[in-house]
Amino acid sequence: MIPVIDFSKLDGEQRAEALAQIANGCEEWGFFQLANHGIAEELLERVKKVCSECYRLREKSFRESNPVRSFNELVDGETEGGVGKRLSDVDWEDVFVLQDGMPWPSNPPEFKETMKEFRDELKKLAEKVMEVMDENLGLENGCIRKAFSANGKHQPFFGTKVSHYPPCPRPDLVDGLRAHTDAGGVILLFQDDEVGGLQILKDGQWIDVQPVKNSIVINTGDQIEVLSNGRYKSVWHRVLATPDGNRRSIASFYNPSLKATIAPATKLLSAESDRVPASYPKFVFGDYMDVYVKQKFLPKQPRFEAVAAAM
Ligand SMILES: O=C(O)CCC(=O)C(=O)O
Ligand SMILES: [Fe+2]
C-alpha cells in the first residue's frame, strides 16, 4: 500500500515522525498520500461536483474523439477475424488543462471560481511539501522553489489537468494513460474516491494507488530527481482502463519555469570533505520539455542525455 501520511502532524509534537514518513515516501516510493492536508472538505466536494458536471457537458466530444475512433476500428477489425493488438499510441481519457492566462470552461457557472480557489490551495500545499523536501534533503529552506523560479526571476509553472477515464468495454486493448514518469517537479493528484486504476511500478511490480477519500496524492517528477541528485527518483506510473466506473482525477503540476536552469543542488555534491559526483547534467527546463513531449512514454535516461548534449 502507498503510504498515507497525516500532514497535520507536521505542525505538532509529532513533527519529526511526519518528516521521517515523508522522507521515506520520497526515497522509497516516489508516491505518497496526504491526509489532513488542510484543504477544506467543503471545497473538495465542490471541486468534484464542478469537474464531473464539466465532463458531462463534454461527454459527446469524447465519444467522437481519436482514441474512441481507433478503439472502435480495432474492435471492428477483430470481429472480422483480425488479431487484437493493444493500442500503443492513444490513452482512454478525456482531458483539459487549466493554466493562468488561458481560457477556462465557463460551464457550469461555478467552475472557474471553484477551481481557482482549489488551485490556490494546492499551490500553497505544494510549496509546503517542497519545504519539507528541502529540510529532509538538508538544503536551505526555499531552495527547490528558488531553483524552480530561476532565483525569483520567473514564475514557476503551475498547471492543472482535469481528467476523466470513462468506462472502457475492452480494457485489455488500451490503457487509461500509458506508463510514464512525470517531467516536472511536484505533482498533486486529487483522485476519484472510489474508482481506482492508478498504479506505480515498484521493485518490478505494479502497485495500486488505493483511493483514499479526500486525500491528496503527491509524487515527484524528473526535476526533483535531478535536484536531489537521484535521492528522490521519479517513478513510473500508469492508469488502467476499467470496464465500469468513470474515474475522475485532477492532477496539478508545480514545475520549474521553462527558463529555469536545473542541476543537482550544489550542497548535495559536497559531503564534508568528499566531493560527490553529479549523477545528472545541468540544463534549461524548457529544453527538457522539448525532449519530453516527444519521449514522454519512454525511459527518462535518454532524455537527460539529450539535454546534456545540448548544453
Ligand atoms: O490521472 C491520474 O491519476 C494520473 C495522471 C498522470 O499521471 C499525469 O497526468 O501525469
Ligand atoms: Fe503522471
Automatic annotation (TrEMBL):
<dbReference type="Pfam" id="PF03171">
    <property type="entry name" value="2OG-FeII_Oxy"/>
</dbReference>
<dbReference type="GO" id="GO:0016706">
    <property type="term" value="F:2-oxoglutarate-dependent dioxygenase activity"/>
</dbReference>
<feature type="domain" description="Fe2OG dioxygenase">
    <location>
        <begin position="156"/>
        <end position="256"/>
    </location>
</feature>
<comment type="pathway">
    <text>Alkene biosynthesis; ethylene biosynthesis via S-adenosyl-L-methionine; ethylene from S-adenosyl-L-methionine: step 2/2.</text>
</comment>
<dbReference type="GO" id="GO:0009835">
    <property type="term" value="P:fruit ripening"/>
</dbReference>
<keyword id="KW-0479">Metal-binding</keyword>
<keyword id="KW-0408">Iron</keyword>
<dbReference type="GO" id="GO:0009693">
    <property type="term" value="P:ethylene biosynthetic process"/>
</dbReference>
<dbReference type="GO" id="GO:0031418">
    <property type="term" value="F:L-ascorbic acid binding"/>
</dbReference>
<dbReference type="InterPro" id="IPR050295">
    <property type="entry name" value="Plant_2OG-oxidoreductases"/>
</dbReference>
<keyword id="KW-0292">Fruit ripening</keyword>
<keyword id="KW-0266">Ethylene biosynthesis</keyword>
<protein>
    <recommendedName>
        <fullName>1-aminocyclopropane-1-carboxylate oxidase</fullName>
        <ecNumber>1.14.17.4</ecNumber>
    </recommendedName>
</protein>
<keyword id="KW-0560">Oxidoreductase</keyword>
<keyword id="KW-0847">Vitamin C</keyword>
<dbReference type="GO" id="GO:0009815">
    <property type="term" value="F:1-aminocyclopropane-1-carboxylate oxidase activity"/>
</dbReference>
<dbReference type="GO" id="GO:0046872">
    <property type="term" value="F:metal ion binding"/>
</dbReference>
<dbReference type="Pfam" id="PF14226">
    <property type="entry name" value="DIOX_N"/>
</dbReference>
<dbReference type="InterPro" id="IPR027443">
    <property type="entry name" value="IPNS-like_sf"/>
</dbReference>
<dbReference type="InterPro" id="IPR044861">
    <property type="entry name" value="IPNS-like_FE2OG_OXY"/>
</dbReference>
<dbReference type="InterPro" id="IPR026992">
    <property type="entry name" value="DIOX_N"/>
</dbReference>
<dbReference type="InterPro" id="IPR005123">
    <property type="entry name" value="Oxoglu/Fe-dep_dioxygenase_dom"/>
</dbReference>
<comment type="similarity">
    <text>Belongs to the iron/ascorbate-dependent oxidoreductase family.</text>
</comment>
